[in-house]
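**User:** Everyone, produce a chain:

**Assistant:**
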Amino acid sequence: MTSIKTVGVAGAGTMGAGIAIVAARAGFNTVLFDLNQDMLDRARRQTEGFFGKSVEKGKLSEADAQAALDRLKDTTEHAGLAKCDIVIEAIFEDLEVKRELFSKLNEVCPPETLFASNTSTLSITEIAGGTGRDDRVVGMHFCLPAQLMKLVEMSPGLNTSEETFQEAWHFCEALGQKPVETQDTPGFILNYFLVPFNNDAIRLVESGIAEPADLDRAIKTALGYPMGPCELLDLVGLDTQVRLCESFAPVLSDPRAEAPPLLRRMVAAGRLGRKTGRGFFNYERDAMFGG
């Protein structure tokens, strides 16, 4: 059981919008925060489209889908998260930006509010050090797409209290997710393998060994992956992969974690994946994965 009733999600990008869907679908009052109203409007359109597809596929009734939408609110003000029992940060991978966000939230949220970070490469302990409540901070790394994937990597910082970790764990289970405990180390479990692996895939495309569609087909068919690496990179965002590399490579000292030149060129050209309509593949803008 969990005592959490209201969930805040900071960041209305692909990951944040997906986490908000998970929380609202599970019955929690949910507040999605972003400084950019356009991002919030886009997330609302994506969410409506996602639940619409869920109804069409018979995964949700129209009444349940509408109820979930009614539970989801948005705000461009930090104070809009003041009544949340937990705030899950899902902004881009920059330590100082995350610490600044949590510092501002520390001023408006009551002392009992839990802070969680969806970081996939940064240290939970370092993030928590800028929050003003490092005993109430925990890592909760959802997997993309959050609205479909069940796994959440749960990571305590050095000063995270056992009470905080257990409270977050029970909340994760109440979301319908499957938590696993990891230590506060670079990449945790998944990205320790995935960041270099995806870079290897980019280098195969860059060297002309395989086209993206053929590479993905080989990985999905032979290894049983539900998504190929190029499709996944387009979903994550190629700019996000660059940030992952830049935060991960210096710590890991692994050349495979360095961003390939092709990746940087695609980002420079604005081919970021699904969110811009073009990456390794072409997409309809504002369409959310799954449903």
